[in-house]
TrEMBL record:
Residues 10-293 form the FAD/NAD(P)-binding domain. SUPFAM superfamilies: FAD/NAD(P)-binding domain, FAD/NAD-linked reductases, dimerisation (C-terminal) domain. The keyword NAD applies. This is NAD(P)/FAD-dependent oxidoreductase. The lineage of its organism: Bacteria, Bacillati, Actinomycetota, Actinomycetes, Micrococcales. Residues 347-455 form the Pyridine nucleotide-disulphide oxidoreductase dimerisation domain. The keyword Transmembrane does not apply.
Length: 467
C-alpha cells in the first residue's frame, strides 16, 4: 500500500471499540458511508480486555456465592481452569474475525492500522502494509478509548494493568491491588476466587468513593468476608521488584514486588495490579496537527467536523454511555430528525461485586451541593426489607436509597447494594429521565414477590406531603 492509495468516506471513525463501531453503524444506517480505523482488535478494549472478560469471570463466582447462601441447593464451587476457559470463549480467544464479519455485513469499511489526523478531514493510517490516507467528506470521529493512569512510583516495576487481570493466565499466590475504585474491587473478587491471596491498598478513606458511602462500606465488609484484606489510607510511596519483565498478558511480570505505603507499612507479593484510573487515549491521534490539545476535547471546543465520543471524549467512561453518545452522534450525522435529548442524561453504573452496587444519577452529597440542603430528601431501606429481595438468597444484605428533589418531587439519584441489584437499576433510570413525580411512582405497582418491591419500601419512607 502507498500513500497514493487514498480512501474516502463520509465519516471516518478512528477507533473500532464498541463506541466507534456504533457511530459507524448508525451513520451507515442513515445512508452515509463510513470507514473505521482500528489499530488492534476490532471490538476494542471492552470486548477483549475489559467488560466482557471481567463479567465472564464474575458471573460464575456470583452464582457460586449465591448457592452457598441458598438452602436447598448443593454448594457450587468455582473451578479455576474452567472459569478461565469461559473467559477465553467470551473474548473469542483474542480473535476479531467475528467482528470483521459483522463490519462487512454492516457495510462499514475497515482500515487496519494506527490512525492519526494530519489535516482538516484527513487521517493517515499506518498499518501492517504501509501508510494510507483516508479522507472524510463530512466528519472525523475520535473513538480511541482510554489508557490506564499508572503513578510514576511504579516505574521499572512492570506492574499488572487491568488487561493482565482480565487476561490472567498465571494466578499469583499473593496479589496486591492498588486502588479503591471499580476495577480494584471487581478484580480483587475474581482473583481471590481463582486462589490468590489478595490485599487491596486504598489511598483514600473508603472503597468506591464516587458512590453513596454505604456502598463502599458494604463492599469492603463483603470482600473481607471473602478473605480479601482491605487496607485504607495506604498511599504507595515506593515499589521495588527484582527482575521486572514484561512476560506477556496475564503472566507474572518478574520476581517478588515490595510496596511501601505512607502510613500502613510494607507489603510483599508475587504481583501488583495497579488500578488507579484511566484517561482518554488522545496522546498520538494528531490533535497537535490541528493546534488542539486533550483539554480542547474535554471542553468540547473542536472544529465542527471533528467529534470525540466514548472513553476518548468528555463523557462518563462506560460502554453503555459511549454507545449512547455514538447512537446520538451517528443519527445526527445522518440527518435523522429526532426529538431533542433531555438536558442531563443520568449515568447508570453497576459494579459487579458480591453484593452488586447499582447506581444512577446523583448521590445525596451531589444533590445537596447542587440544590442546597433544604431541597433534598432521601429515603433509605435495608435491601432485605421486601419479600422479593429476601427470597433472592438467605443473606440478602445491603441497602437501597433514593435521592429526591423536594421542590419538584422527582427522583435525582438511586443506589442499590445487594444481590442482583443490577436488575433494579433501570426503573430508577426511567424515573429520572422521565421526571416521574414520586406521587405517581406510588401507582407503579411491583409484582409480588419481586425485588422491585423495594420501591414500595423506599416511597413509604418519604415525607407524607411528597407521596
Ligand atoms: C477492566 C475493565 C472493566 C470494565 N467493565 C465495564 C463494564 O462492566 N461496563 C461498562 O459499561 N464499562 C466497563 N468498562 C469501561 C469500558 O471498557 C469502556 O468504557 C469502553 O471500552 C469504551 O469504549 P470505546 O469504544 O470508547 O473505547 P475502547 O473499547 O477502548 O476502544 C477503542 C479502540 O480504539 C483503538 N484505537 C485507539 N487509538 C487508535 C488509533 N490512533 N488508531 C486506530 N485505532 C485506535 C483501540 O485499539 C481500541 O480498539 C471497563 C473497563 C475496564 C478497564
Ligand atoms: N462495572 C463497571 O462499570 C466498570 C468496571 C471496571 C471499570 N470501569 C470503568 O473503568 C474506569 C477506570 O476504573 P478504575 O477502577 O481504574 O478507576 P476509578 O476512578 O473507579 O478508581 C480509581 C481508584 O484509584 C485511586 N487512585 C487514583 N490515583 C491514585 C494514586 N496515585 N495512588 C493510589 N490510588 C490512586 C482512586 O482514589 C480510586 O480509588 C472507571 O471509571 C469505570 O468507568 C467500569
Amino acid at each position: 500500500m502507498t500513500d497514493t492509495d487514498e480512501l474516502n468516506a463520509d465519516v471516518v471513525v478512528i477507533g473500532g471499540g464498541p463506541v466507534g463501531e456504533n457511530v459507524a453503524q448508525y451513520a451507515v444506517e442513515g445512508g452515509l458511508s463510513a470507514a473505521l480505523v482500528e489499530g488492534e482488535l476490532l471490538g476494542g478494549e471492552c470486548s477483549y480486555y475489559a467488560c466482557m472478560p471481567s463479567k465472564a469471570l464474575l458471573r460464575p463466582i456470583d452464582v457460586a456465592h449465591t448457592t452457598a447462601h441458598l438452602p436447598g441447593v448443593e454448594d457450587a464451587a468455582v473451578q479455576p481452569k474452567e472459569l478461565l476457559a469461559r473467559r477465553d470463549t467470551w473474548v473469542s480467544h483474542y480473535d476479531d474475525s467475528g467482528q470483521v464479519e459483522w463490519a462487512d455485513g454492516a457495510d462499514i469499511t475497515l482500515v487496519r492500522g494506527h490512525g492519526r489526523i494530519v489535516g482538516e478531514r484527513r487521517v493517515e493510517v499506518s498499518g501492517p502494509d504501509g501508510t494510507r490516507t483516508v479522507t472524510a467528506d463530512r466528519t472525523v470521529v475520535l473513538a480511541t478509548g482510554s489508557v490506564p493512569v499508572v503513578p510514576p512510583v511504579f516505574d521499572g516495576v512492570s506492574p499488572w494493568g487491568s488487561r493482565d487481570a482480565t487476561g490472567v493466565v498465571e494466578v499469583p499466590e499473593r496479589l496486591l491491588v492498588v486502588g479503591g475504585g471499580v476495577i480494584a474491587v471487581e478484580a480483587a473478587t475474581w482473583m481471590a476466587a481463582l486462589g490468590s491471596q489478595v490485599r487491596v491498598l486504598v489511598r483514600g478513606p473508603a472503597l468506591l468513593e464516587k458512590n453513596e458511602p454505604f456502598a463502599g462500606d458494604i463492599v469492603r465488609s463483603a470482600l473481607e468476608k471473602a478473605g480479601i484484606a482491605v487496607v485504607l489510607g495506604a498511599d504507595v510511596t515506593s515499589a521495588v521488584r527484582k527482575h521486572a519483565d514484561d512476560t506477556g498478558l496475564g503472566r507474572i511480570h518478574g520476581g517478588e514486588v515490595t510496596v511501601t505505603t505512607s502510613a500502613s507499612g510494607t507489603f510483599t507479593a508475587d504481583e501488583v495490579l495497579v488500578a488507579t484510573g484511566r484517561r482518554p487515549n488522545l496522546a498520538d491521534v494528531g490533535l497537535d496537527a490541528l493546534g488542539l490539545s486533550a483539554g480542547d476535547v474535554r471542553s468540547g471546543t473542536l472544529p465542527e467536523w471533528l467529534h470525540a465520543v466514548g472513553d476518548a471524549g468528555p463523557g462518563a467512561p462506560l460502554t453503555h454511555m459511549g454507545k449512547y453518545e455514538a447512537r446520538v452522534l451517528g443519527s445526527k450525522l445522518a440527518g435523522a430528525d429526532e426529538a431533542p435529548a433531555p438536558a442531563n442524561v443520568p449515568v447508570p453504573q453497576v459494579v459487579f461485586t458480591d453484593p452488586q452496587v447499582a447506581s444512577v444519577g446523583q448521590t445525596e452529597a451531589e444533590a445537596r451541593s447542587a440544590l442546597g440542603d433544604d431541597a433534598v430528601v432521601t429515603s433509605e431501606v435495608g435491601f432485605g426489607t421486601a419479600a422479593g429481595t429476601s427470597l433472592l438468597r438467605d443473606d440478602a444484605d445491603g441497602r437501597a436509597k433514593i435521592v429526591v428533589d423536594r421542590r419538584r418531587g422527582v427522583v435525582m439519584g438511586a443506589t442499590f447494594v445487594g444481590p442482583d441489584a443490577a436488575e433494579l437499576l433501570h426503573a430508577a433510570t426511567i424515573a429520572i429521565v422521565g421526571e416521574v413525580p414520586v406521587s405517581v411512582l406510588r401507582h407503579a405497582v411491583p409484582s409480588y414477590p419481586t425485588a422491585s418491591e423495594l420501591w414500595l419500601r423506599m416511597l413509604e419512607q418519604l415525607p407524607r406531603d411528597l407521596r
